[in-house]
Amino acid sequence: MSAKPVVFQTTFEPDEGHYSAEGPFNMLVSGETRDELAEAVADTLRFLWREYVDADPAIFTKDAKALRHELLETFPPSP
């Protein structure tokens, strides 16, 4: 299985002085600098992985199972 590209729409809000990124998995994160924004994206992806891939899917709702499947398609585990 090959990985899907992950694309985020990134904007800078000059009035508010921060960057924001909106992307897959219903993600919307922000940071005051580009580095903070990149770290926020990485932190959120790590959180989603722990909560939806590392967890037992037996108790998941249909939507949670769909998100788990999407994460695994986007970031397939190494063989």
Question: Briefly, what is this?
Answer:
The chain is an alpha+beta fold.
Account of the protein in words:
This protein has 79 residues and is α+β, with helices and mostly antiparallel strands. It has one domain. It has 2 helices and 3 strands; from the N terminus they run E-E-E-H-H. The protein has helices at 34-52, 62-74, and strands at 9-13, 18-23, 27-31. It has a 3-stranded antiparallel sheet, with helices on one face. Strand 1 (9-13) and strand 2 form a beta hairpin. The longest helix is centred in the middle third of the chain and has 19 residues, at 34-52. The chain is elongated. The protein starts with 8 loop residues before the first strand and ends in a 5-residue tail after the last helix.
Layout of secondary structure:
Blueprint: E1 9-13, E2 18-23, E3 27-31, H1 34-52, H2 62-74
Antiparallel strand pairs: 1-2, 2-3
Keywords:
2 helices, single chain, 79 residues, alpha+beta, 3 strands, three-stranded antiparallel beta sheet, 20% strand
Strand content: 15-25%
Structural class: alpha+beta
**Largest sheet, strands/sense/barrel:** 3 strands, antiparallel
Q: Provide the domain count.
A: 1
Strands, count = 3
Rg over CA atoms: 14 Å
Low-confidence stretches: none
Q: Distance between the terminal alpha carbons, to the nearest Å? A: 10 Å
What's the number of helices?
2
H/E series, N to C? EEEHH
Shape: elongated
Strand order of the largest sheet: 1-2-3
Q: Mean pLDDT, rounded to whole units? A: 92
Summarize the amount of helix as a percent range.
40-55%
